[in-house]
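Notebook, bench 3.
Goal today: get a predicted structure for Protein VAC14 homolog from Cyprinus carpio so we can plan the truncation constructs. The sequence was checked against the plasmid map this morning, with no discrepancies at the termini. Length recorded as 740 residues. Pasting the sequence as submitted so the record is complete.
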Amino acid sequence: MNTEKDFSPLTPNIVRALNDKLYEKRKVAALEIEKLVREFVAQNNSAQIRHVIQILATEFALSQHPHSRKGGLIGLAACSIALGKDSGLYLKELIDPVLTCFNDSDSRLRYYACEALYNIVKVARGAVLPHFNVLFDGLSKLAADPDPNVKSGSELLDRLLKDIVTESNKFDLVAFVPLLRERIYSNNQYARQFIISWIHVLESVPDINLLDYLPEFLDGLFQILGDSSKEIRRICEVVLGEFLKEIKKNPSSVKFAEMANILVIHSYDLIQLTSMTWMREFIQLAGRVVLPYSSGILTAVLPCLSYDDRKKSTKEAASACNHSLMKLVTPEDDVDDEESQTKSSPQSDGSPSKKESDLNGPGSIPVVVSFVHQDPSQGFYRCHFKNAVSILKSPMLKEISSTVSPCQMFKHTDSLFPMLLKTLSDESDEVILKDLEVLAEIASSPAGQTDASGSCDNSDSKTELHIPGGVRDGQPVTDLSPSTPSMNSYFYKFMINLLKRFSLERKLLEMRGAFIIRQLCLLLHAENIFHSMADILLKEEDLKFASTMVQTLNTILLTSAELFQLRNQLKDLRTQESCALFCCLYRSWCHNPVATVSLCFLTQNYRHAYDLIQKFGDLEVTVDFLMEVDKLVQLIESPIFTYLRLQLLDVEHNPYLIKALYGLLMLLPQSQAFQLLSHRLSFLMLSKQEDPKAPVKDKRLAQPHIDYSELLQHFDRVQSKHLEVRHQRAGRSEHPDRKL
């Protein structure tokens, strides 16, 4: 520095001492400056005061020489002390050069800058608040300083500034929030700790309503919550907990809509529990305000529902979110687009409304997806399920419901169907049960009712079985869908696609087929399930699959407790409807001869069963065929056929039952099943010697509504087709089916 330069009113001795490398000499110079400034204050000579500050700032604090910069810093602090309460008039000139020294490469100089600013702030107190942002910005940098002395000095200054803010009612929160929003994204742990501490202080000041600005920095808070430092996470959890308490106390003033999407974004592992907890409270407190973010919330919630006990709290919070969200959707939301358009007036150019554009405005976090649109002018909500459905179609499918807004759901049923059917292959029984409930809701909902023919115009040919046209009883087949009023067009489509699934995935049929069908019988009525599947299988072109499927359905019919009512309906065939059901099942059951006989046993059509067994001699008797006969004998010994065994006591009036059983006996080789049935028949005692020429007295009369001769002819036709297919297959194969 040029010591010959005129620095008046500073004397040459003061200038020389300020440039000295010894701290003690610089301190003496500072005392002289303090004395000089006091004189100017007494004279009210502000021009000279500003001149002294300018010299200390430009010629010393901003000098290229390190000792001069140190002298300038202590000189500026001395000026502030001399000014006292008047220092507020010169704060900008005092603070700016000191803050510049915060960036100095010399750690000792950065420490002296902290010390100087501490003295300036301590004297000015509340007068520094208009300059709070620049002070905060400087301190946020020093909080991450590698030098421990500098960091210690910045902490002292930080505490002083916090005391000033808490005791003042003139803090400019509006001006500070943009800086906070910027600084909160720092990745430095010390800077994060500094910012969190300030948020905690500001939140505790009664006169500062930081909750109004929470959407501005909530995203940053959740990022800090994922910090690797346990201490930082702890402080952040405390701060978030305090905010959540405030939200619960004053929900009417909370901007839920602006924060809902932030919670969706931050639903990953480390902060998932906190995010779910906040989300749960938001849904309960804000109600339908969060509906525009429902599909995004589902994205975050659904994976958590599969957690085990290690994340029990997160799972419970997610489950509460899910149930609360479903409660928000009401039947009033289920309106047609035409009706919706009469209640709301969207912009004709198709551009988003102001409310929607605000949510995606500059600097905001984009909304993930939109579930419900609210028209503020009408207070009217309309459910837009398209995006929500896209979420539910994902592999996260665990819990969905279409009971509240079926009309809107039905617009997207075609897109849901493939994933719902695919989910039937899930390993979890709970998932399959929930999936079947959804499919049952779709199939039985009034929203899916169409014309009487049950046609479905928007079906996907790629996922359906091919059902060629045909005739039944001389009439075109047009009433394939069950006539039950509770079913809709999608019910029959569901049955077609389910059988297609079983056809393509034989393991699914083998492992889960019976379970799926039994559950559907509970959800959609057994008669509907069996009637529709029988209709579809009647025209199934893959005869081997048709036989396997009939065998599966027959086993379910004869053994499952869920089918008790249907078995009773078929047992006596007292009504025209039950006779029609029998004929419908019979025609498809003909794909499997043994299943057809068991159906006749169930319906007590013993004469027809005997007639069928007589035809077995013309069939190709394979090992698989005999195994099915073996299983039928085992079933006859089960509780399901108790009534049949008791009828054996009345030999005179049940001759065809006995003949049918003897027919089965003659089909069987010498096996355990043969011994079992033979032993059963050996106990039959004739009350009297029958006259061979006497007419047979069958207690059960033929049903007038059933054409048994036509049924036998149908059986012959179906078996002829099976025989033809087997012969074709044997001709192409090197290993034809084994014959007995």
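Residues 340-386, 393-401, 450-485 have pLDDT under 50 and may be disordered. The first helix runs from residue 12 to 18.
Flagging this for group meeting.
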